[in-house]
Batch of 2 targets.
Target 1
Amino acid sequence: MESTVIKYSIWSIEDKRAVATISNEHGQNVQSQVVEIPLADISQIGGPIFEGWWPKNGKPRRVALGGVCLWDARWLIKFKKRGKGNEGARRTLALPYERKDAFERLSKGHQIEKIFYPLRPSEYHSLLIRWQGQKLKEFHPEKILFHVPIKEYHCFIARLEELIGNSLEELHSELDVFTDDIKNMISNNLGGLMEVVDFIDPMSCGAMEPEESFLWPYLHPEKFGFSADDIYGIEDLAELKLALHALKARGHCIPVICCVPTIPDAYAQKTDKETNVILF
């Protein structure tokens, strides 16, 4: 019997291994690399579904680098229908390529019907942060660099305000509340390890654009006081691409232990469940 292939972000998961093709741009050339990661099934312990190291012989170092994204695919724009035919397009602002498409539509004069945003953190956030807490307690690093990208999300909202010509103070305020909830979850799961946690701000350490900031700690760990040899990552599998891009760009290998918290991917499932809505 054929095994089932599970799609998760850019990864295909089958037979306890994840495979993806990673593209890296070098001037006019695009180079592609197939990456494979062995995975362990950890679904029986009530947490995420899979976990694994990249590279496969990876191990903890003295400094852990991790993060958690904020609003997921429930942060959603529904555009007004243009002419006859299908319903208006729906784009989540949580994914870079959909956010870019949404902003391009707005710049061309498309009109928004509704904006949805999450009421509270999801099961995805709970499972990811709980797993990170368990692993960090097991590894007990000297320092934990944690990226919670609140400044970046405020920048995305500001760009949206600019394009529609209206204030979205409700989104800014609710994002702050959501971020507080996430930080409380991190504190509750890390316990005494919070003494060695630094919530890092890449946009105050050289990253010029919000899209650039997610890669910045992997690309320039020295900006945060450490060398690449000091650091390992602890991430959602979807974020492993950060370490892979850093390896191509700067030649340093930062090992990452990663997990698959939920299937389907919370950042690809557009839903208006457990959301508030702003009408236009």
Note: The mean pLDDT is 93.
Target 2
Amino acid sequence: MTGTAMTEAEEFHKIYKLEVVAVPTHRPMVRADETDLVYRNEKAKFNAVIDEIEELRARAGRSSSARSRSRSRRSSGRSSSSAASSTRS
């Protein structure tokens, strides 16, 4: 059903008169939960993204592209994608 049902088992029982049963997965968890990265400002964040793209590009030995929202459309709330180069200007 959901991974959060166990935390709300009491509510399920109280409202719906249902018991919650944990069903173990048949495969081990493979997702790596990394710590959050917090940046002082947007410029520092984008520079960190560029650094990571350059590092991955150097390790893989091939070009890569990254996508982001267009600055002109960011204020309107609509999403738009534009390709970003992996080199700095």
Note: The two ends are 49 Å apart (CA to CA).
